[in-house]
Structures are given as C-alpha cells and as structure tokens.
C-alpha cells in the first residue's frame, strides 16, 4: 500500500478511530476506489500491526460513515468518497 502512512503514535485517540480515519483518507484519495473490495480484515490487521478487533471496529466506523458496505461471504466494498 503506497497511500498515507498510518502512525497511531503521533495523535491521541483510540487506535481503531485513528485507523478508521486513515482508511477514510485512502477512500477519499481514490487509492481505495468506489466499488473496490477492501483487503480482508486479517490481512489489514497484519499489515497495520493491530488486532483483528481493531480492524473490525474501524470497519464498523466506515460503515457508519456510509463509506463501505459489507456483503456476507463477499467482503467489504467502498461505496463512495464522502
């Protein structure tokens, strides 16, 4: 991934909220394009060095923001940039 670097140590806040903000930037920048499938939660957890639950909470925030939709047995997809 070549987008903005994720560094939770440079800001106060919960890691899952910071990760959700980071993912939002990837969507808004077009790196994660509309209708594209997000990498799997386990892959994201490994890539970012966080727990699986942290990625799941971040994804929940993206869903609440209307940026992604999750389809059972299919994955999570970008809906649009806000």
TrEMBL record:
UniProt keyword annotation of DNA-binding present: yes
PANTHER family, alphabetized: MANNOSYL-D-GLYCERATE TRANSPORT/METABOLISM SYSTEM REPRESSOR MNGR-RELATED, MANNOSYL-D-GLYCERATE TRANSPORT_METABOLISM SYSTEM REPRESSOR MNGR-RELATED
Species name: Prauserella shujinwangii
Alphabetized UniProt keyword annotations: DNA-binding, Transcription, Transcription regulation
SMART domains reported in the protein's UniProt record: HTH_GNTR
GO molecular function: DNA binding; DNA-binding transcription factor activity
Protein name: Regulatory GntR family protein
Span of domain HTH gntR-type: 13-81
UniProt GO BP: negative regulation of DNA-templated transcription
Gene3D superfamilies, A to Z: Winged helix-like DNA-binding domain superfamily/Winged helix DNA-binding domain
Listed PROSITE patterns: HTH_GNTR
Keyword DNA-binding attributed: yes
InterPro entries cross-referenced by the UniProt entry: Bact_HTH_transcr_reg (IPR050679), Tscrpt_reg_HTH_GntR (IPR000524), WH-like_DNA-bd_sf (IPR036388), WH_DNA-bd_sf (IPR036390)
């Amino acid at each position: 991934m070549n987008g903005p670097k994720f560094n939770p140590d440079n800001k106060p806040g919960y890691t899952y909220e910071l990760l959700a903000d980071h993912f939002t930037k990837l969507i808004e920048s077009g790196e994660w394009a509309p209708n594209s499938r997000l990498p799997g939660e386990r892959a994201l957890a490994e890539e970012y060095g966080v727990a699986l639950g942290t990625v799941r909470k971040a994804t929940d925030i993206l869903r609440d923001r209307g940026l992604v939709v999750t389809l059972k047995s299919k994955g999570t997809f970008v809906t649009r940039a806000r």
